[in-house]
């Protein structure tokens, strides 16, 4: 099992490197660094609920209706009165108002609070790391998140990583763009100038060293 897992990791890393190499080749051999002007202005960022999120539905004055649970893969949540409530893609406030409307058929003037205490998020609000990360994974974006924060969350890079050949893939209103990353400079040399602000939906591809 261990050897199979290792082989899978190396295959995934190789595919990530191939993807990064194709991006570099398509850009004439090099990629630009993320320009400071594109730093994410996230003052209006609002977390929305996604499949896998853990929530508590609190109904004021009706403790018997208070419940906890996990948003299902189909994006729905089951309460003690309603089996299927659409939750994915909504803020906790929006979901609370929707539940109040449903509960209003059974309870007089219900007051509902939705507390999210286990975060997964929707894909559009995740940041993904593939390739030679210690733990390749999807991480829920959080306000003011930086590249250094992300690398700490995934445990840094493996010994096979070529950090300064890594790539950031970003999609915005103008389309998909690729940028060069200096992860070796950031993590090994402590060069904070190599850090940058992340955006929801960013993908970091950590290349593998061939030597």
Summarize the structure.
By secondary structure, this protein is of the alpha+beta class. The chain has helices spanning 2-26, 92-103, 147-153, 183-187; strands spanning 54-59, 67-70, 76-77, 85-86, 112-118, 126-131, 137-140, 167-172, 175-180, 203-206. The chain has 2 domains: 2-44 and 123-206, Outer membrane lipoprotein wza domain like (Outer membrane lipoprotein wza fold like), CATH 3.10.560; 54-118, wza like fold.
Secondary structure: elements and pairs:
Layout: H1 2-26, E1 54-59, E2 67-70, E3 76-77, E4 85-86, H2 92-103, E5 112-118, E6 126-131, E7 137-140, H3 147-153, E8 167-172, E9 175-180, H4 183-187, E10 203-206
Question: What series of H and E elements makes up the topology?
Answer: HEEEEHEEEHEEHE
Query: Regarding CATH, which class of the largest domain?
Result: Alpha Beta
Compute the separation of the termini in Å: 27 Å
Helix content: 10-25%
Tell me the CATH superfamily of the largest domain: Outer membrane lipoprotein wza domain like
Q: What's the count of strands?
A: 10
Strand % is: 15-25%
Question: Judging by the overall fold, what is the CATH architecture of the largest domain?
Answer: Roll
Give me the side-by-side strand order of the main sheet: 7-6-10-8-9
Average pLDDT value?
A: 85
Rg from Cα: 21 Å
- Characterize the main sheet: 5 strands, mixed
Q: Which class of secondary structure composition applies to the elements? A: alpha+beta
Oligomer, anyone? single chain
Low-pLDDT runs = 1-14, 20-28
Q: How many domain units?
A: 2
CATH-defined fold name of the largest domain: Outer membrane lipoprotein wza fold like
């Amino acid at each position: 099992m261990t050897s199979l897992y290792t082989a899978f990791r190396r295959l995934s890393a190789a595919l990530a490197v191939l993807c990064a190499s194709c991006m570099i080749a398509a850009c004439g051999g090099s990629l630009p660094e993320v320009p400071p002007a594109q730093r994410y202005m996230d003052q209006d960022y609002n977390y929305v609920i996604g499949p896998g999120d853990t929530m508590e539905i609190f109904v004021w004055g009706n403790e018997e209706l208070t419940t906890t649970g996990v948003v299902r893969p189909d994006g729905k949540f089951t309460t003690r009165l309603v089996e299927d409530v659409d939750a994915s893609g909504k803020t906790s406030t929006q979901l609370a108002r929707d539940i109040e409307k449903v509960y209003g058929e059974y309870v007089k003037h219900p007051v509902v609070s939705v507390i999210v205490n286990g975060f997964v998020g929707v894909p559009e609000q995740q940041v993904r790391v593939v390739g030679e990360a210690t733990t390749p994974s999807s991480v829920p974006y959080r306000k003011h998140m930086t590249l250094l924060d992300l690398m700490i969350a995934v445990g840094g890079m493996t010994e096979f990583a070529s950090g300064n050949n890594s790539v950031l893939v970003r999609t915005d209103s103008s389309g998909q763009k690729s940028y060069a990353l200096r992860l070796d400079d950031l993590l090994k040399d402590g060069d904070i100038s190599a850090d940058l602000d992340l955006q929801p939906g960013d993908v970091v591809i950590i290349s593998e060293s061939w030597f």
